[in-house]
Amino acid sequence: MSVKTMNPLRFSKILIVDDSAFMRTFVKRTLKEAQIGSRYYEANDGKEAISKYVAFRPDVTIMDIVMPNVDGVKATMAIKQYDPNARIIVISSKDNKETVQDVVEKGGARDYLLKPCDSSAIVMAVSKQIVVSRHKKKQ
C-alpha cells in the first residue's frame, strides 16, 4: 500500500488560483495547518491556472472568479474541457446567481464558497473533494 493511498488528504496536490497574494497565502496556510496537501501550486490569473493545471495535474483546484487576463469561469471551463474529472472549488466574493450558475452548472465546479470565508469552510470543501473522489475510485 502506498503512502498516498493511506492518507490522500495529507499527500494531495493543490492548485490555488487568486489574483490576491494575501488570499493565496491564507488558503495555503489554512490547508497546511489542517495537514491537507503536500504540494501547493499558485497562479495569479486564469491563464496561469490553466497552464499549471496541465503541468501539475493537482488533486484539487481552488479558483477565484474575478481575475485579470482569463477569469475564473473561463479558466474552470477550460480545465474541465481538458480534464472532465477535475475537482474545482470556487472561492469568490461574487454572489450573484448568474455567476454561481455559470461556474457550477455550466463550468463544472464542484463547490462554491463565498468570500470572506473562514478556514473551516475551506478545509471542509477540500477534504470533501479528496475523500469523495477516493471513495468513487474504490467502487
Counting structural domains, the number is: 1
Distance between the termini: 18 Å
CATH architecture: 3-Layer(aba) Sandwich
Which stretches of 5+ consecutive residues score pLDDT under 50?
A: none
Overall outline: globular
| Strand percent estimate | 15-25%
Radius of gyration: 14 Å
Average pLDDT figure: 87
Helix content: 40-55%
Q: Give the strand order, joined by hyphens, for the main sheet.
A: 2-1-3-4-5
Give the beta-strand count: 5
Taken in chain order, the helices and strands follow as HEHEHEHEHEH
* Major sheet attributes: 5 strands, parallel
What is the CATH superfamily?
A: Response regulator
Count up the helices: 6
* CATH top level assignment: Alpha Beta
Layout of secondary structure:
Elements (H helix, E strand, L loop, with lengths): L2 H4 L6 E5 L3 H13 L5 E5 L2 H11 L3 E4 L8 H11 L5 E5 L4 H10 L4 E4 L4 H20 L1
Parallel strand pairs: 1-2, 1-3, 3-4, 4-5
